[in-house]
Backbone:
């Protein structure tokens, strides 16, 4: 999909590397098995709390369905900060420090406690969820049949106060040949503007032995 332009530098480089290996006898390019074409999708749910506090746990949820007649090769969602000049330098749920000379200019705004996908041994031990891909900002849930839906759910904890913008983009594959589109032909892209307040939420136990969180 054309929304892949947010991180097209990384994908173009990866595809170019695959093509180069193929030309040198290194095997088929990495996108050889991905079909080309447009795959209609519908975004059923897109939610992320607009107001959060430091250390607060929240969920970013994207639910997407296959609105077309063909199976989507690999339904995927990319999460970026659209306000930075080169989003490929910033990891998902992160921000650009804006300082030169750093080995990595990306610093977390949210820590991902639980990524989308099945949580097997690695996830239970603190690793990534089953939907993790080779791209640091992209998660994929596999093939999606016509009429079926997939839900991406990130459990995150806010660690950097301020106002931040998070953009999500839906794709039909990981290599850019299978493009996801809305019913009207538009890009399946959305944004959240989130304010993280510096004071953590306060908790106390009431007379009924219930934990109450105040904001």
Residues:
């Amino acid at each position: 999909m054309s929304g892949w332009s947010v991180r097209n530098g990384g994908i173009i480089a990866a595809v170019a590397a695959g093509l180069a290996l193929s030309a040198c006898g290194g095997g088929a390019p990495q996108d050889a098995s991905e079909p080309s074409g447009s795959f209609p999708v519908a975004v059923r749910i897109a939610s992320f709390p607009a107001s959060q506090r430091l250390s607060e746990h929240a969920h970013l949820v994207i639910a997407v369905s296959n609105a077309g007649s063909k199976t989507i090769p690999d339904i995927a969602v990319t999460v970026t900060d659209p306000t930075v000049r080169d989003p490929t330098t910033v990891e998902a749920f992160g921000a650009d420090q804006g300082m030169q000379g750093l080995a990595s200019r990306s610093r977390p705004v949210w820590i991902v406690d639980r990524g989308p996908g099945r949580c097997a041994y690695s996830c239970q031990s603190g690793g990534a969820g089953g939907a993790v891909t080779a791209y640091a900002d992209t998660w994929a849930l596999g093939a999606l049949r016509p009429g079926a839906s997939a839900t991406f759910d990130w459990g995150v904890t806010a660690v950097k106060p301020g106002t931040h913008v998070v953009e999500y983009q839906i794709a039909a594959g990981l290599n850019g040949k299978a493009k996801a589109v809305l019913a009207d032909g538009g890009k399946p892209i959305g944004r959240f503007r989130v304010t993280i307040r510096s004071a953590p939420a306060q908790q106390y136990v009431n007379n009924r032995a219930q934990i109450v969180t105040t904001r």
Q: What stands out?
A: The longest strand covers residues 37-47. The domain at 2-214 is CATH 2.60.40.10 (Immunoglobulin-like). The two ends are 40 Å apart (CA to CA).
